[in-house]
């Protein structure tokens, strides 16, 4: 791990992994024989888990715009329902399987498996049009989340999304033309938005020539590249904690996302290769370029890594990522890191009483009183936590759990509380309905 | 379809840890306390060792007993009870009878820790609580002048704080600061050697276990208040350096005040906590009926911690303090 443990007053500083000035070129993976895509199917706010899964299954098969056995071609936009998220077929082939899948905190997805094969261009497929940018965006590498309302400022994150992710730095170093094309698209689409580029400290000079783009150098100390902290760096103000960042007029894009949009804008061909930082149990890092939807097992096999019984396979970095239960889980558009961790290297979860040592409070970048918050969360008082103990100010960096000497799963408590707090309005609605009946 | 032949384990982020443990913290505090005990052991020998071992052992036994009664898994491995026992012993004279040692550790573990739920849950510093209870119950056991009668010493064999209380500030001149600093004085097992305490304290502050905000502001509180008293009446009240080097001032500064569970965690509350504690120690010494009384100051400040903890900065993106 990249932990700099300074003796000075016991603070641990976690630094983003930085690429060397001349980065190694990523190892390209051959196109897989089959890909699995996740289609986000959030049905209604507050609805999740089993309930949503049932709802999804109840939709008669005819309502789906896609069927098993449909031929799809590379670069085609696929939609399951009239409304809802689209995905882009990364390879040509046949849809062989569609099944619902429940992710963390009740997020419901449809999985779509495409077996590669020589297929004729399906009828009704049209070439990619510029107006499809918004629909295509969530399926592009880096997962640009484009808002419907024009943002006042666009912040481009040139650091990682997690401590080990180096894809954005790589893109900054090697894909200047794509980034320029992406910037052109932003200027055409949102002419009044200001553009800000965040790079690691000391690398501003390379970017000063980019026109109409303010460049900031930030110290690569985790979690400086967290969206809300970037917003504060740019505006000098803090966005209201309870509302999404876009309400404050800020859109944060990963550099890789911007480059993907640039490629699509300039060439009309959606890029489907995702940069991925892989680290096996030996702790050696590999930068690979993978087709979106490739199963994790393919990546591991290619690199000669192994995940054995009981290991953790973690997508998305050690601080904020999630462990998956199956090796066939696909690489998603926003998967920047893939880790294989032996169980004994992990953090054993314990739930002793909080020692009140204050390490979490002092490291919290959002000034949340974690020690007080934890006591309410343990009791399950989520409303009180949100009102009096700044639950919603948390920026999900996971540093509190990282430093806790008691190894209390604080981050997990906070995630659960946020989830319960967000779906509370829906919950109280159903309660009042029941009372009415 | 997402399936797998290999069964993987699913856990929650983060998947990394800085490596600090509760047991590690406690072990480090125990190690940092040794430089203060060793000079006493070297000078007074076996009786001091006996009290220390008796206290540590009985504290751990008491913890086992209470955890068996309350049907909790044993927490002996985290070292909390051992640390409490050690700190209690450090506040005792070396002629303490064995039953009083066991009584003190029983009070500290039972009433100070386990009744609230064990490590980290107690509102009061268990060491200070047990010592305060014994000081009230059997004050004669803590009478240092009596317990040192058996030794022939090459320095004034009288407890400096008592001497100053009785004889006025001039009595302080009988003690050289160098003697007090190096531990050539009459004191409790772990509080005599200021140099040793300073070494341990510096280690703890550098490692971030005893917060420097609390330690230094406590010392500042001592110095400021003692200077104030001396300015008002230089004949009755001894100077700040004397107060700093005698009694359990430094012990309280590095080991009692910054104890995790009972102290605040944010910078400004920590500074207020320390300043208040320092001022209370001098007030109790100069105006109260106890010679030292640092433990009472610690307990009183522990009471204020929940209020001090509320003095916190506005969190990210919050518009006001309460909303």
Automatic annotation (TrEMBL), chain A:
Protein origin, superkingdom: Bacteria
Keyword annotations from UniProtKB, A to Z: Iron, Iron-sulfur, Metal-binding
Sequence intervals crossing the membrane: none
Domain 4Fe-4S ferredoxin-type: 345-375, 385-413
Record-linked PANTHER family: ION-TRANSLOCATING OXIDOREDUCTASE COMPLEX SUBUNIT C (PTHR43034:SF2)
Protein name: 4Fe-4S dicluster domain-containing protein
Organism of provenance: Desulfobotulus pelophilus
Record lineage: Bacteria, Pseudomonadati, Thermodesulfobacteriota, Desulfobacteria, Desulfobacterales
Automatic annotation (TrEMBL), chain B:
TM helices/strands, residue ranges: 21-38, 44-62, 74-92, 186-206, 213-231, 237-257, 264-284, 290-308
Keyword annotations from UniProtKB, A to Z: Flavoprotein, FMN, Membrane, Phosphoprotein, Translocase, Transmembrane, Transmembrane helix, Transport
Protein name as it appears in the record: RnfABCDGE type electron transport complex subunit D
Organism: Desulfobotulus pelophilus
């Amino acid at each position: 791990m990249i932990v700099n443990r300074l003796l000075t007053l016991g603070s641990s500083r976690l630094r983003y992994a930085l690429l060397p000035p001349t980065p190694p070129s990523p190892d390209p993976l051959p196109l897989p024989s089959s890909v699995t895509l996740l289609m986000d199917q959030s049905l209604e706010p507050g609805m999740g888990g089993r309930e949503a899964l049932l709802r999804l299954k109840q939709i008669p098969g005819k309502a789906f715009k896609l069927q098993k056995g449909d031929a799809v071609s590379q670069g085609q936009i696929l939609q399951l329902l009239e409304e809802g998220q689209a995905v882009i077929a990364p390879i040509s082939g046949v849809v062989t399987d569609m099944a619902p899948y429940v992710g963390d905190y009740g997020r419901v997805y449809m999985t779509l498996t495409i077996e590669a094969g020589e297929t004729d261009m399906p009828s009704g497929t049209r070439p990619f049009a510029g107006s499809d940018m918004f629909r295509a965006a969530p399926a592009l590498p880096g997962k640009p989340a484009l808002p419907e309302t024009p943002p006042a400022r666009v912040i481009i994150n040139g650091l990682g999304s997690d401590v080990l992710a180096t894809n954005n730095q790589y893109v900054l170093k090697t894909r200047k033309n794509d980034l320029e094309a992406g910037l052109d698209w932003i200027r055409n689409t949102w002419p009044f938005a200001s553009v800000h580029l965040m790079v690691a400290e000391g690398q501003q000079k390379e970017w000063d020539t980019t026109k109409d783009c303010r460049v900031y150098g930030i110290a690569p100390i985790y979690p400086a590249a967290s969206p809300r902290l970037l917003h504060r760096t740019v505006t000098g103000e803090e966005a209201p904690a309870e509302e999404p960042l876009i309400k404050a007029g800020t859109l944060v894009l990963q550099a890789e996302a911007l480059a993907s949009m640039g490629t699509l804008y300039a060439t009309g061909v959606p890029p489907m290769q995702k940069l991925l930082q892989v680290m096996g149990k030996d702790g050696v890092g590999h930068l690979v370029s993978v087709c979106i939807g490739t199963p994790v097992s393919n990546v591991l096999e290619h690199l000669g890594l192994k995940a054995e019984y009981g290991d953790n396979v973690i997508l998305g970095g050690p601080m904020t990522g999630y462990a998956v239960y199956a090796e066939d889980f696909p690489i998603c558009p926003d998967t920047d890191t893939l880790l294989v961790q032996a169980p004994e290297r992990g953090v054993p979860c314990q739930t002793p009483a909080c020692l009140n040592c204050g390490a979490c409070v002092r490291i919290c970048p959002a000034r949340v009183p974690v020690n007080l918050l934890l006591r309410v969360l343990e009791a399950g008082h989520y409303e009180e936590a949100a009102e009096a103990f700044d639950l919603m100010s948390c920026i999900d960096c996971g540093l509190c759990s990282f430093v806790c000497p008691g190894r209390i799963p604080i981050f997990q408590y906070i995630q659960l509380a946020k989830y319960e707090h967000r779906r509370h309005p829906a919950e109280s609605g159903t309660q009042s309905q029941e009372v009415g009946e | 379809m997402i399936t797998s032949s290999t069964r993987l384990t699913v856990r929650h982020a983060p998947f990394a840890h800085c490596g600090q443990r509760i047991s590690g913290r406690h072990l480090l505090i125990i190690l940092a306390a040794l430089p203060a005990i060793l000079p006493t052991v070297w000078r007074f020998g076996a009786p001091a060792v006996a009290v220390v071992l008796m206290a540590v052992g009985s504290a751990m036994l008491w913890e086992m007993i209470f955890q068996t009664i309350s049907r909790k898994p044993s927490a002996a491995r985290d070292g909390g009870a051992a640390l409490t026992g050690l700190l209690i012993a450090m506040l005792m004279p070396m002629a303490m009878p064995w039953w009083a040692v066991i009584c003190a550790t029983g009070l500290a573990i039972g009433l100070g820790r386990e009744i609230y739920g064990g490590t980290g849950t107690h509102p009061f510093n268990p060491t200070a609580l047990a010592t305060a209870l014994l000081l009230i119950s059997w004050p004669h056991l803590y009478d240092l002048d009596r317990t040192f009668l058996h030794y022939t010493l090459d320095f004034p064999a009288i407890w400096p704080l008592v001497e100053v209380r009785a004889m006025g500030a001039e009595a302080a001149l009988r003690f050289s600061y160098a003697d007090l600093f190096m531990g050539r004085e009459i004191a409790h097992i772990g509080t005599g050697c200021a140099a040793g305490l300073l070494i341990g304290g510096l280690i703890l502050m550098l490692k971030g276990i005893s917060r420097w905000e609390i330690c230094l502001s406590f010392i500042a509180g001592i110095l400021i208040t003692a200077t104030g008293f001396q300015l008002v009446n230089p004949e009755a009240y001894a100077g700040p350096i004397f107060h700093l080097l005698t009694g359990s001032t430094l012990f309280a500064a590095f080991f009692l005040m910054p104890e995790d569970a009972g102290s605040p965690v944010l910078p400004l509350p920590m500074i207020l906590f320390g300043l208040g504690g320092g001022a209370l120690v001098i007030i109790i010494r100069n105006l109260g009926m106890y010679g030292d009384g640092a433990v009472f100051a610690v307990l009183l400040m522990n009471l204020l911690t929940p209020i001090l903890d509320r003095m916190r900065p506005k969190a990210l993106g919050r518009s006001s303090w309460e909303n």
